Amino acid sequence: MLLLPSLACGDDDGRTGPDPDPEEPVATSLSITPAGASLAVIGDTVRLDAEVRDQKGDAITSVTVSWSTLDPAVATVDNDGLVTAAAVGTARIAASTGELADTAVVSVERAPAGIAIEPTALHLAQGDTVRLSAVILDASGVAIEDAVVVWSGEVGTIASVDPTGLVTAGARGGEARITATAGDAADTVVVQVMDLLAFTSLRDGDAEIYVMNDDGSGQTHLTNDPSGSDHQPVWSPDGTKTAFIRIVGAETEIYVMNADGARGCAGARRRVCRRPSVGPSGRMPTRPPSDPDPTRGGPPCSVSPASWP
User: What gap in Å lies between CA 276 and CA 109, rounded to an integer?
Assistant: First the structure.
């Protein structure tokens, strides 16, 4: 009898049939990128991406991710993760699939990109006050209502500005620059302070001293004494006082008064001389050097800066 060896089918380990199915991917993590973003303009957008990975750490692209905003007044988000700024503030944007979720933070700041001062120029008389305003704009040209404005002025006495934008005109006959700043944005306005002109007028029947601003406004009558005539007003070097000639009969006198007319007559300091004038040194000679008669006008006299009353 012939004996044949038995033949067995299968692997050496005794298992039979095809290999089992590979392990199915299971979503185990979800993360949003970027995790945070900042928008500077209302209506500006940023796209967020949600990445889902399985148990092996491999990306899964076949799952559906849902997007939502927890702060819709600040920012909205569409089904593709596109976030749109709606108002200044902070918004939380969520992405989810199944039981997995993640959140990103989007801030809307609206940084100042431009600033405009109103009015754009000032022409003031000494002592006048005007309040400036400033419109702050973002990069899209939309006004930022609650922006903080810092006001500043040049060092000097021409004009000053307080923290609220109130400008006060100081010394006459000059100009100063006032600046408004918000973040990195700034604007400047020029403030011109009118000079004050002193002159003699016969409009009331006798010669009297008047002043007015250099644009013709603010005409003010400073002297009013029919017993004499007032002529040739000149300013002191600092512009706070005026000297003028008063002629009463045959007598010629110098009077000194404040720029507003105070101490204009009875209380003024008198000197017997003629043609007062103020030069750079502040001295007022009694007569011009070309006067051929050195005795006209009485004895020499002058008013130095230290002797202005």
Answer: 65
Work out the average pLDDT over 267-284: 44
Question: Maximum CA pair distance of the chain?
Answer: 176
Bridge partners of 139, per DSSP, are: none
Contact 173, 194 (CB under 8 A): yes
How crowded is residue 35: how many other Cβ atoms within 10 Å of its Cβ? 11
* Inter-residue contact 200 to 207 (CB < 8 Å): yes
pLDDT in tens, 136-181: 998 888 888 888 999 999 888 899 999 999 999 988 888 999 999 9
Is the whole-model pTM more than 0.70? no
CA 309, CA 303: separation in Å to the nearest integer? 10
Which residue type is seen at 216? G
Q: Write out pLDDT tens, residues 173-222.
A: 889 999 999 999 999 999 998 887 888 888 878 888 888 887 788 788 88
Contact 236, 282 (CB under 8 A): yes
Residue environment code for 84-110, b if the CB has 16+ CB neighbours within 10 A, otherwise e: bbbebeebebbbbbeebebebbbbbbb
pLDDT at 288: 35
Rounded Cα distance, 200 and 223, in Å: 10
Q: Which domains does the chain have, with CATH numbers?
A: 27-108 (2.60.40.1080), 114-193 (2.60.40.1080), 196-307 (2.120.10.30)
Contacts of 281 (CB under 8 A, 6+ apart): 304, 305
